Amino acid sequence: MSAIPTDSPHDANGGMHLATIAHDGLLWDAYLAFDDNPHAPATFRARLRFNRAGEDGPGSVTQTTVIIIEDSYEAAIAKARAFDNRQLEGLLRSTLPDRA
Questions:
Q1: Is 4 within the bounds of a domain?
Q2: Among 34, 35, 80, 91, which residue has the fewest nearby CB atoms (within 10 Å)?
C-alpha cells in the first residue's frame, strides 16, 4: 500500500475521523482505519472503527471488517465519507454484541 498522506487528520490510532453519531443514547466517533495488505500492496483497504465518546467512553472500541477496498487513498476516503449517519449507525450496530 502506498503511504497515507501525513497531512491528513488522523487520531492517535491512525484512523481518520469521519463523524460523531448517536446510538442507544451514547455518542460514538467513527474513524476510517487503513490496513496493510502485503498480498495487494497497490490497494487501500480500510475498516470503520467506532470509539465511544464521553466520560465512560475511553476504551470502548469496536470495528468492522475491511469493507473498503480502493485503488487510491482518495477513492477510499471518498467512499467512507459517502456513508450517512444512518448507515454508520447500522455498521456500528452490526459490530456490537447482541443484547440478552
A1: no
A2: 35
